[in-house]
Amino acid sequence: MENRPARLRILDAAHELMLTVGLARATTKEIARAADCSEAALYKYFDSKEDLFVQVLSERLPQLTPLLNSLAAEPGRGTLEGNLTEIARQASLFYEQSFPIAASLYAETQLKRRHDDALRTIGAGPHRPIENLETYLRAEQTAGRVRPDADTFAAASLLLGACAQRAFAYDATETGARPPVDEFATRLARTLLGGISVAEEPGSPQP
Q1: Which residues pair with 197 in a beta bridge?
Q2: What is the pTM of this model?
Q3: Which residues pair with 146 in a beta bridge?
Q4: SS3 (DSSP) at 130
Q5: 13 and 45 in contact (C-beta within 8 Å)?
Q6: Cβ atoms of residues 87 and 65 within 8 Å
Q7: Nearest Cα residue to 94 out of 203, 181, 8
Q8: pLDDT digits (tens, 9 = 90+) for 137-177
Q9: How far apart are CA 6 and CA 34, in angstroms?
Q10: Residue 181: pLDDT above 50?
């Protein structure tokens, strides 16, 4: 482990500690110790624990944000159903892995407030995926594949809200199992499409 670059060791240690003890209890001192480096070395690569948290989300968890940015930059690529299905799949996996990390913050109000303030300062936060998805849906609106009167903010909120809920809503069921991610993503995308898509996507095969 010591031969690996310090930044990678810190990210791996932070990811593991945030998963096992939660973000609230994963101190930079403990992360540095687990990464076999000094706390000062940690701050050479990351401005704060919140910055480290954001980098863990972006580099160690499913790549939701790059997917959304890529689709928004090139509307009309692929099918709308296929794109929304992949967004729902990636979002479901992202929230499944990130929820255990961030949940501990909600038990400590003052810490949660400081964390939110720090995220706001660096331009990050859990609202960003909703904004990015709305940007993509607006681009598809301009391209003619989403209805002109569709509420893109509500659509983005519905899709990502359902994906986030999947991360914790099924623990108390008899099996404790979440809906299978591929089937869940497919059904979610198809249902959402019924409310926002035009009757037929441009270029779709005719019956």
Answers
A1: 146
A2: 0.77
A3: 197
A4: helix
A5: no
A6: no
A7: 181
A8: 999 999 999 999 999 999 999 999 999 999 888 988 889 89
A9: 11
A10: yes
Q: How far is the C-alpha of 106 from the C-alpha of 44, rounded, in Å?
A: 29
Residue-by-residue DSSP string for 85-107: HHHHHHHHHHHHHHHHHHGGGGG
Q: How far apart are CA 101 and CA 99, in angstroms?
A: 5
Give the residue among 5, 61, 9 at the shortest CA–CA distance from 35.
Answer: 9
Q: Which positions ≥6 away from 98 have C-beta within 8 Å?
A: 57, 61, 167
Distance of CA 15 to the CA centre of its chain: 15
Question: Rounded to the nearest 5°, which phi and psi values hold at 146?
Answer: -115, 135
**From CA 80, how far away is CA 199, in angstroms rounded?**
12
**What's the N-to-C CA distance of the chain in angstroms?**
58
Half-sphere exposure of 5 (CA within 13 A, CB side): 5
Q: Look at residue 125 and tell me whether its pLDDT is greater than 90.
A: no
Q: Is 108 exposed, middle or buried (CB count within 10 Å of its CB: 0-12, 13-18, 19+)?
A: middle
Phi, psi of 197 (to 5 degrees): -85, 155
CB within 8 Å of 72: residues ≥ 6 apart: 132, 135, 136, 139
Q: Is 180 helix (H, G, I), strand (E, B) or coil?
A: coil
Q: Pull the structure tokens for residue 32.
A: 């540095």
Give, as one character, the DSSP assignment of residue 177: P
Give the rounded distance of the alpha carbon of 161 from its chain centre. Answer: 11
